[in-house]
Amino acid sequence: MAFNDIFLRACRGEKTSPIPVWFMRQAGRYLPEYQEIRGKADFLTMCKTPELAAEVTLQPVELLGVDAAILFSDILIPLEPMGINLSFKEGKGPIIEPSVRSERELKALKKIEPERDVPFVLETIRILRRELSDKVPLIGFAGAPFTLATYLIEGGTTKSFVNIKEMLFSAPGLFRKVLDLITEVTISYLSAQIDAGVQAIQLFDTWAGILTRHDFKDAALTYARRVFNSLKGRGVPLIYFVFNGGHLLDLIRQSGADVIGLDWRTDIETALKVLGPDVIIQGNLDPCLLFLDEERLRDRILEIIYQGYGAKAHVFNLGHGVLPQIPPEKVRLAIEMIHDLSR
Predict the structure, then answer these.
(1) Can you point out the beta strands (E) in the chain?
(2) What is the average per-residue pLDDT within 252-279?
(3) pTM of the predicted model, to two decimals?
(4) Could you list the active site residues?
């Protein structure tokens, strides 16, 4: 099998035939093969066991025919070596203790040394590069500083975001110190992933879309840009995905990322009116559209492909992760359609 490089070529701005496709959360609960491994180990154990993490990463490559693999891990992994207790509870998501809302709690945190503190992530990458050497590229990732700070300050998931916004607006000096520390950690973590062999990086800013344009610039964009600037020149494409960020597109373009990821709320044609045609975009099928019957799914995929031709280059993806309720055969069908329709 020859190495499939269409994902990397598209990330460099080349129009490819077919266009490349990978899906966020393409390794996950909708796959019976994943569930089989998950039945023997909890989520964090899977992340911390290189052989298991590598096996799960490889599953969608072998089962679905995607054009890139994304490292199986979690954006919160760097928090533990910083001095945080991290756990995942079924139905509740991540639990972070202690939450960081004061100078005292901030001072208890420390920077990480990836080779010492997260060796399992780097070993997983090394295993995967060997396994994928004649297949597809490997994407590494991290949470963007604002998103990681949200979990750290809120103590887990939230709907109100009141604690991080309270710090942002009433204790801006403390907020900047928290973000400065997380940014340094993120840079060293992603640099180590690149050293270990990942061939592209995605920065997930899951919660930056809660911010106004004014606040996004200072609270999120400043720190994401610092990450991208530090990784420029490392020879890997840099992707920035801001969930629910349609109102921020012109600012996102200033991040320094090579590729801009779109969620499903803003169609590609509308996004390009803001971004301009000289951009590389990634996205953006609504994950729930995978519930459509074959004919209607084909029409929606074709619409996104046509709109993507207006960009410099296009990497097809979902507008968020694959849902656990989606049948694996529908995911496989969508990938086949994307390849066939874009040839």
Answers:
(1) 69-70, 85-89, 93-97, 138-143, 200-205, 238-242, 259-261, 280-285, 313-318
(2) 98
(3) 0.98
(4) 25, 29, 38, 74, 151
